[in-house]
Request: fold
Amino acid sequence: MIVKGGTVVMEAREKRADIRVKDGVIVEIKENISLEEGEESVDASGCMVMPGGIDAHTHFDMPAAECKTSDDFFSGTRAAIMGGTTTILDFAEFQRGERMQDGLDLWHEKADGRSFCDFGFHMTVPEWKEGTGEQIRSMIRQGITSFKAYTAYQDSIGVRDKELYPMMECIKETGAILCVHCENGEVLEYLQKKYLKKNPDNIRSHPLSRPDLVEKEAVSRVIDFAEMTGARVYIVHVSTGEAKQAIGRAKERGVHIYGETCPQYLLLDESCYELPGFDSAKYVLSPPLRKKDNQPALWQGLREGVLDTVSTDHCSFFYKTYKHLGKGYFTRIPNGIPGVEHRMELMLHYGEQQGLSPWMIARATAENPARIFGLYPRKGVIGVGSDGDLMVVKTDFPHMISADTQNQQVDYTPYEGFWVKKKIRHVLLRGQIVVKEGKLVQEEPGGRFLKREISR
Ligand code: URP
Ligand code: ZN
Ligand code: ZN
Reply:
């Protein structure tokens, strides 16, 4: 397979070149590669060729209190690959008192043979007790090298500091990495109760009960634990300028900390909680959308590398049925929004407007997730020896994002009406063309589980 005539986005530069992929792997990158007899080619003339995206934060087929996410691995990864993402890392879960192994087995059942993208899992750890460390080591032997803790949702999946700290010690000892959802759970639960008394049916109560400093306080505490234990820690979905600054200061001190933000925090703001009727429920997620004046700091964080990645936290719930479960009672609205399909086109358009070059966008959406989560250089970059995961992007094809044309299995998109200039034209997974001229041409899911290893 040769991808011909495009401008190739490499690490920190761009160049005109053809790319040859053999047996799934890139074997040659140079100008004017001649086709061998019978060799297939894909036209990329006038287009950019970028590494297939890696979305390091999805929730497919995830149970919620009274429902479950509307996208499973089949629909979610199909939408992802249509949007230029060729690898996803999903959060596997199990409940307190259950075995971590059962959580992993369940997530394999959900994903194996049903994923269009190559995929891996982070394992969520909802408790720390005798034997948890051994279970973490067992996960690592099975290719799960990243874990997740929540400092909120303490009534279900979240952990207390006295659990988080030994978890981080274990993460340090094993060389794994811990993703952390940072909000002060005790404060926000107190505030939720307060707003439930005052204003249970007003969706504004959602952001009011989770103010900016509820995130920043937890981020700072988690950074301090990372510094004390020496663990590698990845702060998911950073939504505020203050949290970003705390991460920047920690990086300067040499703490092993990484920051992720998401398109929703870069592009949407708290005015979405002022919509008529129940429409604001479409934007209920945690952390909530913030005041617009946080956005320049987040973009700046991406430009200067304080924020390492842009993932989606794709967690879709049907608006008409599932989001409505919380009508009249804001804490019962399932938390989460869709985005896996639109991340790349949004970042290519709005990232460019914010001064991010194509390689900087590739760095945040592919290269850095690969480096942080043990997939580099197999994934995340265009280089000889890397997997032939590629997307070919039309650079001047203005179109509007809309639920009417999306592939995600959900009845709305939070980016309805957003214009984007670039369009995903072709997508290749390990050299196989999966999306051609914007259409899915591979009907069967061909994604493989990525068994990762600890690299020290
Ligand atoms: O509201 C959100 N983000 N739901 C998904 C779970 C999480 O907190 O990441
Ligand atoms: Zn979260
Ligand atoms: Zn999440």
Summary: The chain is about 30% helix and 20% strand.
